Amino acid sequence: MQIETIKDVLAWTRELHRYLQKCIHHCSEKSKSDRQMMLLNYLAEHENTLCDVIEKLEASSDDKALNTWCIEYVDKRPISPHGECEGSFSEMKVDEIMAEVFHMHNQVIELYRYLYSRAGASSPKGLLGALLELEQNESIQIALETGRLKD
Fold it and tell me: From start to end of 1-136, where are the E strands?
């Protein structure tokens, strides 16, 4: 996927969450423990919700903000494409699953944080700020909810 504008970044983010949702859901069907299956089902549902929210944000955003160029970040830090799910989540322990999910979410947060810091105009800065806050809040919510599995 060629990423040039904020609209492309939103599409990439949505696809990342969709990939995670499908992969995690697929792996939940192969899980070996109830605890692991509960975690994977929760995460799959959460990723699906994130896709929906990002889609709605994109639909309600200003075209000027969406068409803002952001090639500089991508040139410096290439965004890796999504691979195929090979059932790896079903082979992981709960802590390993969480580490992998947080790693992917942190990539998105880092991207939004950088783009936000570089945005000059208020329209793209507002959109990027909302996206950054969404991703950060969702990561916190995931951490809180999944932390209860350890209890």
Answer: none
Residue 131 structure tokens: 């996206």
Tell me which of 24 and 120 has the higher pLDDT: 24
3-class secondary structure, 93: coil
Are 3 and 40 in contact by the 8 Å Cβ rule? The answer is no
What residue type is assigned to position 131 of the chain? L
Q: What secondary structure does DSSP assign to 3-27, as a single string?
A: --BHHHHHHHHHHHHHHHHHHHHHH
- Asked if the structure places residue 122 within a domain, the reply is yes
Please give the residue range of the domain that contains residue 60: 6-150
The number of distinct structural domains making up the chain is 1
Strand partners, 69: 5
**How much is the average pLDDT of 110-117?**
91
Measured distance CA(61)–CA(67) in Å, rounded: 10
What is the tens place of the pLDDT at every residue in 67-79?
988 876 555 555 5
Nearest to 88 by CA among 99, 77, 74, 78: 99
**pLDDT surpassing 70 at residue 56:** yes
Q: Is residue 123 part of a domain?
A: yes
